[in-house]
């Protein structure tokens, strides 16, 4: 014996049940789509951040504790090293300096590449090392008149010679990126 609501025929009761089931299925579909969109948005923001400052990206691939920042003029360089030193000036009067060839041993993470924020600059900066389009290092903040000679990459690289870029991120007084400059370098892994 089937139960029917008072004043409802069995056919209307079944139609009501089907209507409720369609609404529940529609609600489930919308919930799944919403979760997928939120997941996509989260992954998108993680892969392509709008801001790369340390305040916005505290977990970004940044310098390891062992990487040192030195203050003062670049150390005594040989004539050959001075010729390899790349220096560029932009319209904004920010000067960048990086030795044009960096070295690293195969399957290790310790890159030997001198990158400086010269004394003539008035702004702090950070820099990224980009090899084959992939950011493998993001430095801590370099104040004017400071430099680094060794960087610990996020992952080891294989033997070979790689064209790379040192992307300077020029910071304003609040630590936000106010400009960018790129220096082309070569990474020799052997």
What does the secondary structure layout of this molecule look like, with pairings?
Blueprint: H1 10-47, E1 70-71, H2 79-84, E2 85-89, E3 95-99, E4 101-104, E5 110-117, E6 125-131, E7 134-138, E8 146-152, E9 160-171, E10 177-189
Parallel strand pairs: 4-10
Antiparallel strand pairs: 1-8, 2-3, 3-5, 5-8, 6-7, 6-9, 9-10
Q: What structural keywords apply?
A:
36% strand; 23% helix; 5-stranded antiparallel sheet; elongated
Structure description:
With 190 residues, the chain is α+β, with helices and mostly antiparallel strands. The chain has 2 helices and 10 strands, in the order αβαβββββββββ. The strands form 2 sheets. Strands 1-8-5-3-2 form a 5-stranded antiparallel sheet. Strands 4-10-9-6-7 form a 5-stranded mixed sheet, with no helix packed on it. Strand 6 and strand 7 (134-138) form a beta hairpin. It starts with 9 loop residues before the first helix and ends with a strand.
Task: Briefly characterize the structure.
With 190 residues, the protein is an alpha+beta fold. It has helices at 10-47, 79-84; strands at residues 70-71, 85-89, 95-99, 101-104, 110-117, 125-131, 134-138, 146-152, 160-171, 177-189.
């Amino acid at each position: 014996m089937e139960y029917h609501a008072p004043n409802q025929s069995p056919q209307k009761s079944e139609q009501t049940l089907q209507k409720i089931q369609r609404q529940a299925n529609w609600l489930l579909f919308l919930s799944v789509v919403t979760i997928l969109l939120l997941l996509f948005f989260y992954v998108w923001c993680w892969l392509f951040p709008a801001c790369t400052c340390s305040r916005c990206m505290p977990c970004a691939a940044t310098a390891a504790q062992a990487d040192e920042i030195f203050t003062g003029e670049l150390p005594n360089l040989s004539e050959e090293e001075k010729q390899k030193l790349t220096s560029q000036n932009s319209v904004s009067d920010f000067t960048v300096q990086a030795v044009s060839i960096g070295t690293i041993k195969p399957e290790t993470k310790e890159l030997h590449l001198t990158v400086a924020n010269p004394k003539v600059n008035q702004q702090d900066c950070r820099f990224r090392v980009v090899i084959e389009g992939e950011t493998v290092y993001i430095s801590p903040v370099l104040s004017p008149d400071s430099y680094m000679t060794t960087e610990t990459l996020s992952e080891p690289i294989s033997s070979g010679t790689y064209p790379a870029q040192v992307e300077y991120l020029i910071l304003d007084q609040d630590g936000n990126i106010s400009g960018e400059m790129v220096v082309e370098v070569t990474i020799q892994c052997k």
